[in-house]
Amino acid sequence: MEPNLEHLLKIAKELSITIKQVEATATLLDEGATVPFISRYRKEVTGSLDEVQIAGIRDRLEQLRELDKRRESILKSIKDQEKLTPELEAQLMAAETMAALEDIYLPYKPKRRTKATIAREKGLEPLAERIFAQENIDIEAEAANFISEEKEVKDANEALAGARDIVAEWMNENAEARAAMRKIFEKQGVFKSRVMIGKEEEGQKFKDYFEWEEPIEKAPSHRILAMRRGETEMVLMLTAQPDEDAALAKLEDMFVQGNNAASEQVKLAAKDCYKRLLKLSMETEVRLSSKKRADEEAIRVFADNLRQLLLSSPLGQKTVLALDPGFRTGCKLVVLDKQGKLLHNETIYPHTGQGKAMEAAQNVKYLVDRFEVEALAIGNGTASRETEAFVNGLNLPKTVQVVMVNESGASIYSASDVAREEFPDQDVTVRGAVSIGRRLMDPLAELVKIDPKSIGVGQYQHDVDQSALKHSLDDVVMSCVNAVGVEVNTASKQLLTYVSGLGPALAQNIVEYRNQNGPFKTRSELKKVARLGDKAFEQAAGFLRIRDAKNPLDASAVHPESYPIVEQMAKDLGVTVQDLIKSNELRQKINLKNYVTDTVGLPTLQDIVSELAKPGRDPRETFEAFSFTEGVNEIKDLRAGMKLPGIITNITAFGAFVDIGVHQDGLVHVSHLSDRFVSNPHEVVKVGQKVEVTVLEVDEARKRISLSMKGDPAAAKPAGGGNRGGNKGNRKESEEEPMDDFQAKLAKLKGMFK
C-alpha cells in the first residue's frame, strides 16, 4: 500500500521525527516487516528508530487509514442521497477525528422515526424555520396557520411543540454545538457514583464509591474502571455529566438571539434538546472516551509489568527438582533435566504426620543425590512456606539453591491444550509442577505458554478493551522473545510462534522438521522447512540461535545477510571469524568506516562488532536467590514496624504489591514507595525486584497489609529482579486504592505547596 503523504506529515509532526523516517518505516511495515526486525536490522533505513517509535507509527497509520475508510463511506452515502455540496465535501475532508466526522454526517445519517420526523410529517417544518429565524412575529397567529384535523394538529400549542421538536433536532445535529457540548462534558463533567439501595452489604468491595465524585478529566484509570465495574455488578449508580445550568447556558448562547416570543420558543427547544438528546448522547461519548483513556493506561501498566516479568532473570540450564505444595493432598514433585525434560514424578506428604514427613525427607534426599539436582523450586501457593521450612530442614548440599517460584497461572497451563500436547500421559498436578520448575529455569520460555491475562500482573484486565489488550500484550511478548533470542533446537512451538516472521503455522513446521531430521546444524537449513520462504527467513533468522553450530555467527544476533561483512573483516585482518569473537584486541583494529556501503551504515556495523564481543549472550540479569524472613509465614505473624524482605509482584497506578511470604501481598501505596515524590510507580520499582519494606498496618479481617519502602535504598531507582511474581490468588482484581491512603497523599501534597 502506497503511504498517504498527509498521513506521513501528520505522524512525523506528532512523533517529532522526520517524514523520511515515517515513510521508510511505513513502507517496511506494509511489506510485512515486524517491529522487532525493523528496530534491530533496519536502522539505516529508519534513522535508528526504536520499537516504541515504530509501533507508534504502525498504530497511528492504522487509525488514520480507518478514518479514511469511514470518510469514504460517508461521502458515498451523502452522494447517493444527492446532497453532497463542495462545501460539505471540504468539511468532511478536513475532519481530523472520528467524532468530528460523525458530527458532520449526523444530519444525513439514515435515522429511525423521531419526534422531529413526526412533526415534519404534520407539515410543521415551515413553522420551525420561522421560529428559528427569531424574527419579531406573532407566534400564536403563525402557529394557528398549521392547525389541521387531517394532519392531527389540534391547536396552536401542539403546532409549536412539534416545531420545537424540529428545532431541537437541528441543534442536536449542529456540528459546532456538539463540539462545544463535548468540550464541556470533557472539561467540566463530573463522575458521581452512589450505592444502589439495598446493596450496601453485598457491595462492600466498592465501599469507597458509595458517595463519590470527581472531575472526569482528572479521574485516574483504576478509579474509572472500579466505578464502571461497580455499575456493571449493579452495586453503584454512575453518572458522568457537567453542571446542567452551565451546559444549557452554553447551548442557549449559541442559538438564542434577541428577546422575543420566537426566541423564547428557541430557548424551550434548547432545553429540550439538551435534556432529551444532547445530554444522553454526550454522556455516552464521554463515558466511552474516559473508558478508552482508562483502558489505555491500564493496558500500559499491564504491558510494563508483563515485560518486566517475562524478562525476569533465568536460573539457566540446571537440573531442577520442583514442588507444587499442598497439605492434605501432598506435594507433587517432579525432576527436570537441564533442558526441562521430565525425568521423574511422584507425590510426597511432608505435612500429614511424622511418618509421612520422614518418608518424604528420604525421597527428596535420594532424588537430589540420584539426579544431581542443582536447584529446588517451590510454588508459592498454599503450604509454600511450610514446604520451604521442610526442605530447609533436610540439610541438602549447599550447592542446591532453594527458590520460591511464582505459580500464578500454572493451573491454567496444566489444564490447557498446550500442556495436554506436551504431557498427554500425565495429570494436571504433574503438569503444574513441571511449569513451576521450568519457570525457574527460563521464565520467558515457560510463560509464553500461558494467556498473559492469567499471569497475575494486570489490573482490571477483564474490564478493558480485549482486542486492544491482546494487541498490546502480543507486542510485549514478541518484543521480549526477540530481544532475548530463541534456541531453535530446543524451543517450544509456543516460543517459536512469537519469533519475528514466524507465527503458529511456521513454528509447528519447524518443530516437525526438527523431529524428523534432527537438530538444525545451520541457519540456512531453516529454508528447508515447509512454507518458510525468503521473507520469513529474512524476518526470523537473526532472532534464532543455533548453539554449537559450525559457523559461530549462527549462535549470535548477527543477521545472515551480514555474514559476508564479518567474513571480510576477518579476512582483512588475516584471521578467522572465531578469532574475532575471541579477541577484543582484534576487534579494536577494525575500522568500521571501511565497511560502510549504500545499504549498511555505522549503526549496523556497531551492532555487529558489539555482538561479536558477546555472541548470543542472554540480555537478562543474572539470577539471584532470595529468602523470606523465617518465622513470618502468615498474616497473624505481622506487627507494625517490622522490616521484611519482599518481592514486587504487581505494579498499579496507585502503588506496588509486595510478596512478604504470608500468602497475602501487601500494598506499598505510591506515597510510600520512596522518600521522594513519585507520580509513576514504574519510575522506582519493577516486577520481580527485591525490596525491603516496613509494615505500617495490618487488617487481618479484611486481609489488607499496608507497607512502606521509605528509607529503602532499593527505592531510589529500579534494581535487579529475580524470577518471582505475586502469590496465586492473593489479591482480588477489584481491590482499589484505599481512599484513606489517597487522602493522606493529597494532604501531604497540599502541605508541600503551603
TrEMBL record:
InterPro entries: HHH_9, NA-bd_OB-fold, Ribos_protein_bS1-like, RNaseH-like_sf, RuvA_2-like, S1_domain, S1_Tex, Tex-like_central_region. GO terms for cellular component: cytoplasm. GO terms for biological process: nucleobase-containing compound metabolic process; translation. Residues 719-728 have a biased composition (Gly residues). PROSITE patterns: S1. It holds the Pfam family S1. One of its GO terms (molecular function) is structural constituent of ribosome. Residues 707-741 are annotated as: Disordered. This is RNA-binding transcriptional accessory protein. It comes from Pontibacter oryzae. The lineage of its organism: Bacteria, Pseudomonadati, Bacteroidota, Cytophagia, Cytophagales.
